[in-house]
Design a protein that fits this description.
By secondary structure, this protein is an alpha/beta fold. Helices cover 27% and strands 13% of the residues.
Length: 321
């Protein structure tokens, strides 16, 4: 078997620590291991042929990233940066991450775009050239008011569940994207779904903040290590009663008593995704499993710190091709 030398670097805390202008990212003690590798890389007797770096969105504007680029350029690597999500591979899960691939070679990659962070995988020659959305002008949703009593100003009117017309339209567009598979392809068939139902206390407290999807949806939020333990911003929840219209459930919800709210919200049968289902969305093989002694909480934490296998596999194929 041919031996291939490759360095794989992954970190996941820059956005929370990033201090633009103060270079706080490189002074954080948790970057020490990363900086150590950058320090010894030019002094290695034999450089690795390949480098692959993964990080959260935000790393691309950090001082650590600038130091990384400076180091690999000085070592003679050709490189390309990306911001990629599994949705680009037809997987219904948003997990936008920074990636860098680098190869020790004199010639640049055929798709190499200096100074650009590509927002999609490189195309083949028969396809259109890549779009560099980092430099594209951002489009904003129109300011739409559905209530004549609401004054349209610089912000959109909130319809229900603390979502604006633009946000709802964006989700509908995602669900109508036929290039992305439905969530039901990644769900378990035989589970005790009652053990994954959201507790009444969480329904009451976070009803207006939940990102609710159905098995037929073609989207889901990024699952973090706090999923199952915290509600807000940790991942989507699954509505098991697909025939119930969410708009009808949330209509005048805030005017109801706590008991009435729970009764109405319970009609949606909202549950957490199981660890196995999240692993499926992350591209782990069907035979993948956790040791029996690991708790559900521990499994959520491990998966929240994980990578999407399909995204990384395609990058390695591009890198080593």
């Amino acid at each position: 078997m041919k031996y291939i030398s490759i360095i794989f670097l992954t970190h996941s805390y820059w956005p929370r620590q990033l201090k633009i202008g103060l270079q706080g990212d490189v002074t954080d003690p948790r970057t020490n291991s990363f900086l150590y590798i950058l320090d010894i890389l030019p002094r290695l007797q034999k450089l690795p042929k390949y480098i692959l770096v993964e990080n959260v969105k935000g790393f691309e504007v950090s001082s650590a990233r600038d130091l990384l680029i400076q180091t690999i350029e000085n070592c003679g690597f050709q490189y390309q940066e990306f911001l990629l999500s599994p949705t680009s591979l037809g997987i219904p899960n948003s997990r936008l991450r920074y990636f860098l691939i680098a190869k020790l070679q004199p010639e640049p990659f055929p798709f190499q775009a200096p100074g650009q962070v590509l927002m999609e995988f490189p195309k083949t020659e028969s396809e259109h050239s890549p779009q560099y959305a980092i430099n594209a002008e951002k489009k904003t949703e129109p300011n739409i008011c559905f209530d004549s009593s609401t004054q349209c100003s610089g912000k959109e009117a909130i319809l229900f569940k603390l979502e604006t017309a633009g946000e709802i339209d964006r989700k509908r567009q995602q669900d109508s994207d036929l290039s992305v598979r439905m969530l039901k392809d990644f769900l378990e068939d035989n589970i005790d779904k009652h053990s994954f139902f959201l507790p009444p206390k969480s329904l009451l407290r976070y009803a207006l903040l939940l990102d609710i999807v159905k098995p037929t949806s073609r989207r889901s939020m990024c699952f973090t290590k706090g999923y199952g333990r915290y509600i807000e911003g940790t991942g989507s929840v699954l509505q098991m009663t697909e025939d119930v219209q969410i708009e009808n459930i949330y209509k005048s919800l805030t005017s109801l008593s706590p008991e009435e709210k729970i009764m109405r919200l319970s009609m949606l049968q909202l549950r957490f995704f199981t660890p196995k289902e999240i692993a499926n969305l992350l591209g782990f093989p069907p035979e993948f499993g956790f040791p029996e002694m690991t708790t559900v909480k521990q499994r959520y934490r491990l998966l929240g710190n994980s990578l999407n296998v399909h995204v990384v596999a395609k990058l390695i194929k591009i890198l080593c091709g």
